[in-house]
Specification:
This protein is α+β, with helices and mostly antiparallel strands and 131 residues long. Helices cover 33% and strands 44% of the residues. The relative contact order is 0.21.
Length: 131
């Protein structure tokens, strides 16, 4: 059975992120997309617009000396424009190490991501790591 197009889109996004392929990410996101990042740290908040979201992704790399990695575990879809990814992410920042599970709820319009709601396993740990 073929993978649902929304699951394939999410997988394509994760693969592009891992390669640092911002052109592919730009191509699969709407111009007005928003990536919502939980927490109370300098990178948290609503990154509105594709360029702001891509800037956030760049900061994940620059703030960790390029050590930020994400491993996609699963993608679930509802067939009505929503997909949920389950992942594990790791990073080092100074003397801090992060190894957490997370999830992103994607809203998909047509064949593009319009909204990303990020969730983390331990919000206090994330706040400490990025502060």
């Amino acid at each position: 059975m073929a993978e649902h197009p929304h699951a394939a889109l999410v997988r394509m996004g994760y693969e592009a992120f891992q390669r640092g392929d911002m052109d592919t990410l730009r191509g699969i996101m709407t111009g007005d997309c928003t990536h919502h990042v939980p927490g109370s740290h300098p990178l948290s908040g609503d990154h509105k617009g594709v360029e702001s979201a891509l800037e956030y992704y760049g900061k994940l790399s620059s703030e960790t000396g390029g050590s930020f990695r994400v491993e996609l575990h699963d993608v679930f879809v509802d067939g009505r424009g929503h997909a949920i990814s389950v992942n594990r992410f790791t990073a080092d920042r100074g003397d801090k190490h992060l190894d957490e599970k997370g999830s992103i709820v994607f809203r998909i319009v047509g064949d593009k991501v319009s909204d990303l709601d990020e969730c983390v396993q331990d919000i206090d740990k994330a706040n400490d790591f990025w502060s």
